[in-house]
Amino acid sequence: MTIRVFVVDDQDLVRTGTIMVIQAQGDMTVVGEARDGLEALARLGKVVADVVLMDVRMPLLDGVEATRRLLAGAGAGPKVIVLTTFDLDEYAFAALRAGASGFLLKDAPAEEIVAAVRTVHEGDAVIAPSTTRRLLDHVAPTLPLPADPPIPLTDREREVLQHIAQGETNAEIAGRLFLSEGTVKTHVGRILAKLHLRDRVQAVIWAYEHGQIPRI
């Protein structure tokens, strides 16, 4: 199956370079491009895309609001990967809360970008451990403290959630907790189901917002 990609960036050089990288892949094709959020929403209403690479800082309509509007409609919309210049970027965090499936730095290697597209297309989320941890540690102190709601997770599931929130992969979690990857995958699935979350990105945000990760 060919992955249909839509590229949104207000910098012509960056947008063109990203398009060239995507078009060079045998399993991907670019179905459209846009210079800002408004243009992206208009064009995405006329084409079918599986994955949108969305810059967060743009004129007219930024990537955060564009992502929110794009994913607010009924039915399954495209997956969104937000692109940011800064690894400590509140815009990127806001885009994740708006429903994006992950974020990448604009200067990420080409192989990292195409790997991210494949990952979100398969239904997973893109979490770069180091940048995600720095970003959320930077933003977490600004989040409101939770009202201590009941959390329907077992002790093991809480433990797995804490490792997810640190950006660790299933293999890394399995190694730390002396479990098989299959068992970790089962725990992750139960966590998402119990908390009514879409993917690991939402799990990370939920963990921080509900005080499951120690504040700095």
UniProtKB/TrEMBL annotation:
Modified residues (4-aspartylphosphate): D55
Single GO term (MF): DNA binding
PROSITE patterns from the UniProt entry: HTH_LUXR_1, HTH_LUXR_2, RESPONSE_REGULATORY
InterPro entries: CheY-like_superfamily (IPR011006), NreC/VraR/RcsB-like_REC (IPR058245), Sig_transdc_resp-reg_C-effctor (IPR016032), Sig_transdc_resp-reg_receiver (IPR001789), Tscrpt_reg_LuxR_C (IPR000792), WalR-like (IPR039420)
Keywords: DNA-binding, Phosphoprotein, Transcription, Transcription regulation
Domain spans labelled Response regulatory: 4-121
Pfam families, per the entry: GerE, Response_reg
Record flagged with keyword Kinase: no
Parts forming coiled coils: none
SMART domains hit by this protein: HTH_LUXR, REC
Keyword DNA-binding listed: yes
GO biological process, one term: regulation of DNA-templated transcription
Domain HTH luxR-type residue range list: 146-211
Name of protein: Two component transcriptional regulator, LuxR family
